[in-house]
Specification:
Layout: E1 2-6, E2 9-11, E3 16-17, E4 20-25, E5 28-34, E6 44-47, E7 52-53, E8 57-62, E9 64-65, E10 68-69, H1 76-87, E11 91-99, H2 103-118, E12 126-130, H3 152-158, E13 165-170, H4 177-185, E14 189-192, H5 199-208, E15 212-213, H6 229-236, E16 241-245, H7 253-262, E17 268-271, E18 284-287, E19 290-295, E20 298-300, E21 306-309, H8 313-324, H9 328-335, H10 337-342
Parallel strand pairs: 1-6, 2-7, 8-11, 11-12, 12-13, 13-14, 14-15, 15-16, 16-17
Antiparallel strand pairs: 1-4, 2-3, 4-5, 9-10, 18-19, 19-20, 20-21
Amino acid sequence: MKRVLSNCCIFDGDQMHSGLAVLLEGDRVSALVPESDVPDSFTDKFDLEGHILAPGLIDIQVNGGGGVMFNDAPSVETIRVIGEAHLRYGTTGFLPTLISTDSATMAKAIVAVDEAIADGVPGVLGIHLEGPHLNSARRGIHHASRFSQIDESAFELLTSLQGGCTLLTIAPECTSPEMISRLTGQGVRVFGGHSDASYDQTREALAAGLQGFTHLFNAMSQMESRKPGMVGAALEDAGSWCGLIADGQHIHPTVFSVAVAAKPRGYSLLVTDAMASVGSTKRTFNFDGMEIHVADGSCRLASGALAGSDLDMLKAVRNAMHFARLELTEALRMASVYPAHALGLEDQLGYI
């Protein structure tokens, strides 16, 4: 099937264009051409009525959506429901994210992602394993009883995904630089998070292959005047990616702005850390024995502690523009181009 999308402003990942049309052949973009040069063979035409056409958004931290959590039922159907819920907010690529759990559930989740990719479930790019190799001092809503060391059997499990990307969040002080190097050598993207690592420990992990940081500022050692901590190491390092939850709840808008300014362009990523409520009318749901309430744009426990987010990627783009006074094009890059690079998929996704 040959289709053409026209009468729109096209953001191709680099710059905004007017007067161009997008030619689609099957499920691939074949060309961008002046609207006056659309071949006659492209007869299936869509008028976008002057709106902006941008690359699909990519979210590397999606715990749930559409009323379901990946942890609760790690299956192909759950992945499909989550993907459909986030698609309506512009997310065309995502990593179903598994919060710290037992090895049997991890194995089931990894198999489900492989099957979802094989079945062509739209959007699924791999899996994000957020734990269980974390520090109980910075556990957040993770149950410390789930935490464990990375032994040989865990290594085999963490590297068992057959297709797509594996993103692993670890506390680097709870493993060794050698293990980080082994994991990255097997293609795992290793991020730091839920960690009480010192600045020096974080720098050592970066040298060993640590590639980024999960929800920067949240559940990690903070930057102080004489103790830079993980946050200080993350902001200083020029070659690592930092995921940021732009909901105004997890980090103050000013802190968001300062972080984006501190990192080199291309290394700040928008993530949602979305829970079951996104794309659902549910305002209360249970997760791992905890009741979570949705109010004022955030997900919280009865104690008031944050428990993931009610954020979608389109809202994150708008908030990023507001918080850091960014141009629309840069906020879109933070939600598409830069996550594609962080996953090593920039030759496939993030651009038109």
